[in-house]
Amino acid sequence: MGFWSLFVTALMPILKVLVVTGIGLFIALERIDLLGPTARHHLNTLVFYIFYPALVASNLADTVTASSLATMWFMPVNILLTFIIGSALGWILIKITRPPQHLHALILGCCSAGNMGNLFFIIIPAICEESDNPFGSSDCSTDGDAYASLSSALGAIGVWTYVYMIMRMSATKCKGEINLCNSTTSVRTSREALEISSDCCTEALLPPRDSPRSGNWSDEEELPHDGSEEKSEVPFSEKIKQKVKIFMEKTNFKQVFTPSTIGVIFGFFIGLIPPIRKLIIGDSAPLRVIESSATLLGEAAIPSTTLIMGANLLSGLKGSDVSIVVILGIVAVRYIFLPLLGVVVVKAATHFGLVGSNLLFQFVLMLQYAVPPAMGTGVICQLFQFGQSECSVIMLWTYAVAGFALTLWSTFFMWLVS
After folding, report:
1. Where are the transmembrane segments (predicted)?
2. Most distant CA pair in the chain, distance
3. Span between the terminal Cα atoms of the chain, in Å
4. Residues of the chain with pLDDT under 70
């Protein structure tokens, strides 16, 4: 295939994303107000609890089997590498740009976690629908759904474990510093008031040394001490129990096991167990209504999420105090360095036989390095009421560049694997 044919094939799905995103941005304007903050909150709740879990569960149950999962074993490793390499590049960016302390976790989250959810469900099927795609048309849609489902599931788990953890620690630390600053100011004010009032005091707080009680004052204050008290040694098993208890208290399993993660578990449970799969999946399955209902609900996830993404970008137009150097650095990490390193990783894995000969699978593995930051990062910022304006500005510019960058990288990846 020529470069122009590959470019058009890669451009079509990106244009779909941009069109729906633009509609979401338009209907969120104050003059239209069809997707204002209240409506966006309710729609986001539906997507989070109903639409997206149904989409992931139905696609995984329908497309993932024990044999297909064996061929996709490198995808979890590849997604883990995207988080590790992205975090390393984000750490380098922090050292170079030296942003404020409260932006460190946000930069790490935007550099490490990519949007492997709704974008993959739009881009991959749209590429398979193109007649000139280099992956063929027989198994492209079926394999593409499986790759998109597994990529979305693993990406969501990474966002809600790693990114959630670092954002929570950063938010707790910064809020603690704010509280400490406020308490210090309060103590300073009280101390100044005490110094002013002490000028009017005529009596000492402690009795003078020449008073009758002064001779025995030190004796009265001293407590008897016997050397029988010793530190009792804590058994090793108790130390382990304490560590586990602290970990359980600090880990928010409600956020780790999100509805999407639960949908992933159900999808794997149905798809990988043959007796249950025969009951639910297939045109002649007795309980096929469950799968068809989940598919019907899941079809609403992609347009809804893309509309919300466009509406959320509206707040980024208002600006924030985030440096333009930081924004350019995140854009460079996500659209230059990560994709280049991704090509090296995937090509090395293919050379050593870790990845099969499926061209679409190789393309998806490379594409996982070239997507914009995960929208879940913005959701986490809203959850902690922390860094929302900065995250909106970063999302605005990274998604504005995404249309151009994703098209070029998709074209290059298709040329590379074909």
Report:
1. 6-29, 41-61, 73-94, 106-127, 147-167, 256-276, 296-315, 322-346, 366-384, 396-417
2. 105
3. 8
4. 1-3, 137-138, 174-234, 236-237, 239, 241, 243-256, 319-320
pLDDT number for residue 289 = 94
pLDDT digits (tens, 9 = 90+) for 370-415: 999 988 887 788 777 777 778 888 988 898 898 889 989 999 999 9
pLDDT of residue 175: 59
Residue 373 sits at φ, ψ, to 5 deg, of: -60, 150
The class of domain 3-180+251-417 in CATH terms is: mainly alpha
Domain ranges of the chain: 3-180+251-417
CA distance 24 to 417: 34
Closest CA to 300 of 48, 12, 116: 48
| Three-state secondary structure readout of 101-141 | HHHHHHHHHHHHCECCCHHHHHHHHHHHHCCCCCCCCCCHH
Please count the other Cβ atoms lying within 10 Å of the Cβ belonging to residue 372.
Answer: 25
3-class DSSP state of 374: coil
Contacts of residue 285, Cβ cutoff 8 Å, sequence gap at least 6: 278, 279, 291
Retrieve residue 104's tokens. Answer: 């460190």
192 exposure class (CB count in 10 Å sphere: 0-12, 13-18, 19+) = exposed
Cα 352-72-271 angle, rounded to 5 deg: 160
Q: Which helix (H) or strand (E) holds 365?
A: helix 359-367
Query: Which token pair is 224?
Result: 């008897």
Contact 342, 82 (CB under 8 A): yes
Tokens of 225: 């001490």
For residue 381, what pLDDT is reported?
Answer: 80
Provide CB contacts within 8 A for 122, sequence distance 6+.
Answer: 13, 16, 17, 302, 306
CB contact set of 316 (below 8 Å; sequence gap of 6+):
392, 393, 394, 395, 396, 397
At residue 1, the pLDDT reads 54
Q: Say what the pLDDT of residue 184 is.
A: 54
H/E/C letters for each residue in 41-56? HHHHHHHHHHHHHHHH
User: How remote is the C-alpha of 367 from its chain's centroid?
Assistant: 17
Q: For residues 385 and 359, what is the distance between their CA atoms, to the nearest angstrom?
A: 43
